[in-house]
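Box 3.1 A note on notation
Throughout this textbook, protein chains are presented in two layers. The first layer is the amino acid sequence; the second is a token string describing backbone geometry. Keep the layers aligned when reading.
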Amino acid sequence: MRFPEPYAGLIIRYSYLWKREFDAGREEGTNDRPCAIVMTIVDEDGDKDVLVLPVTHSPPADPADAIEIPATTKSRLGLDGERSWIVITEANEFVWPGPDLRAVPGRDESTIAYGPLPPRFFAHVRDKFLERDQREKSGRVKRTE
């Protein structure tokens, strides 16, 4: 499988491990889902650490905990027609490419990316995530191989 360079704003398919699942002792995610890369950091060895936020169909209990993806953006990315939100209260961190990347259903089996979020929308997501993270540390799960 050939992987694209990771960059902030790219939506990928990933086996996301929710913080509550991690806290319960799970090591693997139960569902493959779209996730937004919110940050990529290259260390001195050239390894890329990627921070991803999950996309879910479940509306947040608190509207401040997630940002709804506009229907036009979902359509352009090839996501389903149901309402979806990017959760900003937690994230997974992993070294790119990790073993939990998955092929996008209905596309070439080597494709793990849906495409990029519009720059202004992504900036809004990133800013809200960083604001919340400064106020109340996000639940981060560091994934390993």
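Helices lie at 19-23, 71-77, 119-135. The radius of gyration is 14 Å.
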